Each structure stands twice: as C-alpha cells, then as structure tokens.
Amino acid sequence: MNRPLAEADVIRCAEQTPAVLEARGLSYAHAGIGTLFEGVSLAVRRREIVALLGSSGCGKSTLLRVLAGLEQPATGSVSFLGEPLASPHPRSALVFQQPSLLPWLKLADNVGFGLDFAHQPRAGREALQGRIAAAIEAVGLKGREAAYPAQLSGGMAQRAALARALAREPELLFADEPFSALDAITRAEMQDLLVDVVHRWHSAVLLVTHDIDEAILVADRILLMGGRPGHLAQEWTVDIPRPREDHPEAVTALRLSILGALRHASL
Amino acid sequence: MVGILLPFAGLLAAALLWAAGAGWLGAVTPVAASFSPGPTVDALLQLLQGRDLWEHVALSLQRVAVGLVIALLLGIPLGVLTGLSPLFSRTTTPLFQFARMISPLSWMPIAVMVLGVGDAPVYFLLAFAAVWPILLNTAAGVAQLDPNWLLLARSLSATRRETLLRVILPGITAHILTGVRLAIGIIWIVLVPAEMLGVSAGLGYFILDSRDRLAYSDLMAAILVIGFLGYLLDHAARSLHRRWLHA
C-alpha cells in the first residue's frame, strides 16, 4: 500500500473513476524565491478525501492555490471535471486556516456570500435559501443564523466557514490547514464533522495539512510533499475503517511508515 | 454606581474651578464677573428660549455636514487608490503628509480671495481639514483587508464591481468611520475660527458678535454650547462605529 509515486500511477488512478481534479507536471516559480515546486502530478477522484501532507513552507499552500485556479502554474496543466481550468471553478470551494468570515454580515449571509455573484450558476432565491439552511444545519449552527461573526467562538466561526463552502455544493472542497488554529478538542470535533458532511454532500476534499494524525484520521489517501523545490515524494492509501480511533495498531503502523518516509527523504 | 458618578464629579470640579477663577478675575477687573457660571447659565437659558442661537447652531451644523460630505467624496476614492496602488501611494505620500501638516486656517486669506466672501471658503477650509484623516484611514483600511476575503472573492469569480462593493467597501467601512470620527473632531475645531471671517452667522460669528456687543455671558454660553455639541457629535460618530462592528 505504500510505494513511490509515479506519474503512471496517477494516470491509472484517474482512469479507474472519473477524476474531479487532475493535474500534470505542475511547477511554480516566483521571482525572489525561485522554483517552489516542480513535476507535481496528482488526481482527486469523486468523493475522495486526499490529504496533502508536508512541512511548513514546502509550497503545499501555493500548490493548493494553483489547483484551485487562483494562481497560474509556470508549467503543467490542471483540469476540473475534465475541462481545463483557467479560473476558479464554480463547483469548488475554499476553507482557510482562519474562518475569514465577513464581520459586517450575519451568519446566514456569510454562508450565502457570493452565491448570487454574476459568474455563479443561476439558482432561484428559494433554492439558495434551502442550500444555506441545509449547510448551517449540517455544521450544527441552526438557530445562530442572525449572529454576527464577532459573537461566535473560534470553533463556531470555523463551522460557519465550512458551511459557507458547503452552500456552494462543491464537487471539490479545497481546505488549507482548516483546523490548525483550533484547540485540540475542537479540532477533533471538526475533523469528524468534515468527514461527515463531505460524505453527505458527496464532495471530494483536498486537505492541506502539516499534521500527520489529521491526515491519517481524515484522508482516504495521503500525498507526502517535500524537498526543495517541492515535489510529491510518496503516497499512501488509507484503508483503515472509520472511526479510525478504534484501530490504534493500524493508525500507529501508518504513522511510523510516514515518519520513516520523512526521515529517509530528509524532506 | 461610582462609574456613573465619576464623570459628573469631573465636570463639577471644572465648574468649581471656573467659578473660583472668574471670582478671582472679577476682583481684578469687574467686567470679568459676567464670565462666571451664574450669569453664563442665565444667558444660556435666555439664548435657548430665543431663536437666534438655534439659527446659528443649525447653520454651523449644516456647514459641518457639507464639509464632511466633500471630504468623504474626495477622501474615500483617494484613500482606496492609495491603498490599492503602490505607485499612486509612493507618488502622493510625501505630498499628502506635507499638505496635512498645514493648518487649514493658514489657507483662509487665499480661500476668501479665490472663493469670495460667504459659505464657500468655510466649506473649503472644513473639507481641507477633514479630508486627511478620512483619506489616511481609508488607505489603512484597504491595506489591512483580510487577504482571504479577496481570495474568497476570487474563488467566487467575483467581478471587479462585486469585489469593490461587496468586499472592499464594507471591509473598510470601520476604518472610514474611524476617519469620520477624527474628521468631525477636527472640523468642529476649525469651524469656529473659520466662521470668524467673511460670514454673518454661525457659532464662530456668534462668538465674535458677542465680544463686539460686550455680551460676555453670551460668549461663555456659546462656548458651553460648542463644547456640548462637539461632545454629542463625537458620541454619535462613536456609536455609529460600534453599531457597524456589532461589538
């Protein structure tokens, strides 16, 4: 189940089930910092949770932005649902490390923010209200619709940020260290919640994290990124049944395997 | 309870010092007796019952409003531009810092010469005084926008218009309101001297007129009114700021 990642594997994976996101030969360079990563190929299949694991500053957040269509790669291409991606896709959504709610909007308006923008798919007012209500209920914030962000705790605000992403009914949710600013207990709750809601929403997730345990507990597949310039070093398929806390031996074995890879690759 | 009483204790202490000072001054120059609290309060009650003072107040507040609106119309777009464009910011920062440090009142002779006698030079002076805090706070607000808000807008493929109206402008409103609060403070201070030249009504005019009529109690009453109105304006600006932030 663990082996070096080759381009052929990525393509074979993509052919098994239709890929939501597929990237080939991505590199990214920036004046001043040089080449941040190169030769990155990966695919995210429908309803799959993929963790992109790497140390701070390895370029994984920038890779996420390139994959989300927010930055242009120097080389390589990204396709979303089979179409080449030039700008952010309406069926993708972002969650950041900080909730970044808009403080002048009530919770319900934050969750619904941007659904009426010109480049978003047209939807009736009632359909949108329904999506907003469903997203708020799914993250357990029903009854707080009229609250302003300043009146929410950190955990509640991050729930609201997750609801904002769900309201877009995304095929793929990009999450950039979404729980690393939360305390340990809230983080564990949010990890469970994320898995639960993306399964119910039939969304795929690309989760950027530096937390090995988070990757193991949440992801179906883990991609290890490291080196300078950054590249994908190794891949693990996580087939431990959920809840994974109930299978400590398997979790520990995978953890040791990842730690070993980190040491050998001297990332 | 103590928290409520303390501000009143401060005001009472000031009133006592005022009475003592006026009493001491009155012993030296008899005319100073009309500066003391008693005659001032009498004059104030008299003025509040008449129409004159209210007309002066209304005119002064109208000038504040016009000056503030002009300052907002100039300051917000310039501030947004300063915050968004490093080129514009580098070009204009020394100029703005230079112009900001010139007392608006030093423009008064030129303003009267160019704009003529009447309300126009007063509007100019008030707007000139108020534009800087609005401009600088707007620019600071743009610089402090959460980058994730802009990323969020981009992830929604927001148009320029949507980004400006739905993210940037509401995102900097708290800063603009801070600028407005500072601007009101400055306008209120500049207003009185600005109204001492070339106009025939307003609180500044009323101060000079009281002096010329030797109505020193009226003059003191006007000072009280100016302080009280300034306090109310500042309070209003503060509560606007608080309401926007829902804090």
Automatic annotation (TrEMBL), chain A:
<keyword id="KW-0472">Membrane</keyword>
<dbReference type="Pfam" id="PF00005">
    <property type="entry name" value="ABC_tran"/>
</dbReference>
<protein>
    <submittedName>
        <fullName>ABC transporter ATP-binding protein</fullName>
    </submittedName>
</protein>
<keyword id="KW-0547">Nucleotide-binding</keyword>
<comment type="similarity">
    <text>Belongs to the ABC transporter superfamily.</text>
</comment>
<dbReference type="InterPro" id="IPR017871">
    <property type="entry name" value="ABC_transporter-like_CS"/>
</dbReference>
<feature type="domain" description="ABC transporter">
    <location>
        <begin position="21"/>
        <end position="252"/>
    </location>
</feature>
<dbReference type="InterPro" id="IPR027417">
    <property type="entry name" value="P-loop_NTPase"/>
</dbReference>
<keyword id="KW-0813">Transport</keyword>
<keyword id="KW-0067">ATP-binding</keyword>
<keyword id="KW-1003">Cell membrane</keyword>
<dbReference type="GO" id="GO:0016887">
    <property type="term" value="F:ATP hydrolysis activity"/>
</dbReference>
<dbReference type="GO" id="GO:0005524">
    <property type="term" value="F:ATP binding"/>
</dbReference>
<dbReference type="InterPro" id="IPR003439">
    <property type="entry name" value="ABC_transporter-like_ATP-bd"/>
</dbReference>
<dbReference type="InterPro" id="IPR050166">
    <property type="entry name" value="ABC_transporter_ATP-bind"/>
</dbReference>
<dbReference type="InterPro" id="IPR003593">
    <property type="entry name" value="AAA+_ATPase"/>
</dbReference>
TrEMBL record, chain B:
<dbReference type="Pfam" id="PF00528">
    <property type="entry name" value="BPD_transp_1"/>
</dbReference>
<feature type="transmembrane region" description="Helical">
    <location>
        <begin position="123"/>
        <end position="143"/>
    </location>
</feature>
<feature type="transmembrane region" description="Helical">
    <location>
        <begin position="64"/>
        <end position="86"/>
    </location>
</feature>
<dbReference type="InterPro" id="IPR000515">
    <property type="entry name" value="MetI-like"/>
</dbReference>
<dbReference type="GO" id="GO:0010438">
    <property type="term" value="P:cellular response to sulfur starvation"/>
</dbReference>
<feature type="domain" description="ABC transmembrane type-1">
    <location>
        <begin position="57"/>
        <end position="237"/>
    </location>
</feature>
<dbReference type="GO" id="GO:0042918">
    <property type="term" value="P:alkanesulfonate transmembrane transport"/>
</dbReference>
<keyword id="KW-0472">Membrane</keyword>
<protein>
    <submittedName>
        <fullName>ABC transporter permease</fullName>
    </submittedName>
</protein>
<feature type="transmembrane region" description="Helical">
    <location>
        <begin position="214"/>
        <end position="233"/>
    </location>
</feature>
<dbReference type="GO" id="GO:0005886">
    <property type="term" value="C:plasma membrane"/>
</dbReference>
<keyword id="KW-0812">Transmembrane</keyword>
<keyword id="KW-1003">Cell membrane</keyword>
<comment type="similarity">
    <text>Belongs to the binding-protein-dependent transport system permease family.</text>
</comment>
<keyword id="KW-0813">Transport</keyword>
<dbReference type="InterPro" id="IPR035906">
    <property type="entry name" value="MetI-like_sf"/>
</dbReference>
<feature type="transmembrane region" description="Helical">
    <location>
        <begin position="98"/>
        <end position="117"/>
    </location>
</feature>
<keyword id="KW-1133">Transmembrane helix</keyword>
